[in-house]
Amino acid sequence: MQLSRFTDYSIRVLIYLATLPPGELTRINEVSELYDISKNHLVKVIHKLGQLGLIDTIQGKNGGIRLKLSPEQIGIGQALRQLEPLHLLNCSVESCCISPACRLKRYLVDAKEAFLKELDKYTIQDLLVDNQKLYSFFQKEKPGSQSPPKKQARRIRIKEKA
């Protein structure tokens, strides 16, 4: 199963926001530069995450974005359900002559449900726990560590599939 680029970017935004201290705002430009994502595309992602109630979007000079819920409250399976239609097969009687007798659609629905049920076990917080390597990608110290956080975030290039 392959997630859409939109969903991929959405999860990446949630991960980054979860590494910030609770309540801290960041700007869309920072996230755009960090992940090397078009700001225009990221604005659409941010808008959807705000509509879903996963993040706060604050306009104005001192505005920005931040998680609305704690990372423990954002289930990965539920987020995917809200972000991605997850239709594995487009079966219809008009397009396939064996559709009335075919069992493949049922098996794929079962597989999708098993996939989401497994992801329901995890939250955004689970991606952060004991994961200093993730924080180092953002050049941040894990909250509660002794070292002061670094100010400049490192840019991460997302490899596109051909």
UniProtKB/TrEMBL annotation:
Task: Identify the keywords attached in UniProt to this record, alphabetized.
Answer: DNA-binding
**Which Gene Ontology cellular-component terms appear in the entry?**
cytosol
Under Pfam families, the record lists: Rrf2
What domain of life does the UniProt record list for this protein's source?
Bacteria
The major lineage groups are: Bacteria, Pseudomonadati, Pseudomonadota, Betaproteobacteria, Burkholderiales
Put simply, this protein is called: HTH-type transcriptional repressor NsrR
Molecular-function GO terms, alphabetical: DNA binding; DNA-binding transcription factor activity
Region (Disordered) spans which residues? 140-162
Q: Quick check: keyword tRNA processing in the entry?
A: no
Organism, per UniProt? Saezia sanguinis
Basic residues compositional bias, start-end: 151-162
Please tell me whether the keyword Signal is annotated for this protein: no
Q: Which PANTHER family match?
A: HTH-TYPE TRANSCRIPTIONAL REPRESSOR NSRR, WINGED HELIX-TURN-HELIX TRANSCRIPTIONAL REGULATOR, RRF2 FAMILY
Check the record and name the InterPro entries matching this protein.
TR_Rrf2-type_CS (IPR030489), Tscrpt_reg_Rrf2 (IPR000944), WH-like_DNA-bd_sf (IPR036388), WH_DNA-bd_sf (IPR036390)
